[in-house]
Amino acid sequence: MMTQNALIIFTRVPVPGRTKTRLMPYLTPKQCAKLHCCFLKDIASVCKGRGTDIYVGYSMPGGYSMPDGYSMPGGHSMQGGNYPFVTGAGCGMDALCGIFGKCAGYFPQQGDDLGQKMYHAIESVLERGYKSCVLLGTDVPEVRWEDIQEAFRMLENKDVVFGPTADGGYYLVGMKAARKEVFQKQTYGHGKVLSNTVRSLEAQCLSVGLGKKHCDIDTKEDILAYRERMRLCKFLQKTRTGRYLMQTSRISVIVPIYNEKKTIAKLLKELRKIQAHCEIILVDGGSTDGTLDDIGADFKLLRSKKGRAAQMNLGARESTGDILFFLHCDSELPERPLEQIRCVMKDYRVGCFGIAFHSRDFFMYTCRAISNHRIKDRNVVFGDQGMFIERKLFFEMGMFPELPVMEDYQFSLNLKKRGEKIGITKKRLYTSDRRFPAGTLPKLREMWKMNRLRKKYRDGVDIETIAGMYADVR
Length: 474
Hints:
This protein is of the alpha/beta class. Helix content is 37%, strand content 17%. It is built from 16 helices and 15 strands. An 8-stranded mixed sheet has the order 10-9-8-11-14-13-15-12. Strands 3-2-1-4-6-5-7 form a 7-stranded mixed sheet, sandwiched between helices. It is elongated and about 85 Å long. About 5% of the residues have low confidence.
């Protein structure tokens, strides 16, 4: 039984290399198609089962067509075996039909430009006797059913309704009668699409209603902004789009090295486990002990002046990741470290690993407990805890201050002053206890010394004096 209202989902068929191309090369063609499928699945979950007939108006690349048995408006069935469609990889016409199923109808978009295509789609559906029709694009995964419901409600008193996008366009258009004037003399893809259209309609004495504004996703910057909004909205984190965009966030691992002959081989073995899934940058500060001899051509190696801050800053500037992960050379990664990082970053802009030591010494266990508690209690993180941070935030903070020591401590204090909360992973990163000498009393003296040095730094003691008291254990 036909309902009074009809909803048209207007979309490209999600074929790699043919959809969301403005996101390339930030995302691969396959990732673009997968992201588009996520958009469609989120929209389907919002719209299906709401008592409104759903149509899918699709734009299909040449050489592809609808699979057998799916209908078009008017009941025209696409029978026969001469309709090839994309298979595999979870994208293409099979994915489109799999997402929306046997809904009210599928039909190809018709027209020379976007405006003509939207007009013909609305005209075709309204000719079936519906009271009103809303056409919805698929680049705004934050749309909720309430937005569509409000559009139908406004159409009771308005001639045309729009759902505005933050970039000056619109993601939704609805009307009770197909009106060519909505789409005539209009170009798309610029920031005045909606304002120009509304001005033209009002000049023709047509009433216009505007729904809730949303952000579409067309560019890399749109994705970064969506991830920021996810931290404030648990609903977005649970969507397929949100989960996929978090999974695809790029991570750059930046490792400062200097005379690490004893630790570099073990670290490289650890890094090779994740090498295919992230960017890895090693930054040498002038090693003289043969450290560089162990680094193969499969790793990106930069050379910098000595100084952990200068080395990490150079690595950050040369990186491409959305998330920067600063790792010390004497660290041992837990299982699936990239997933741990992404899990934290869905809620925080900066985070770290909790640390552990392989030593069974009671005082090393105490050091572990104090360090991990410091993150939660005082919101302070040190470099050996594997700090990771949103790229944008890192550069907004001015990078690490180039101090001979305490660069991580000062950076952490700066984050705290800014009000940034630090997240912590569930799994621990093992770090070396080489700074701590053997024996109970020597360990206690070293812990006390480090605490006093931080106190001197906070009290304004000259950093070079503090650096002279900070022994290099390599």
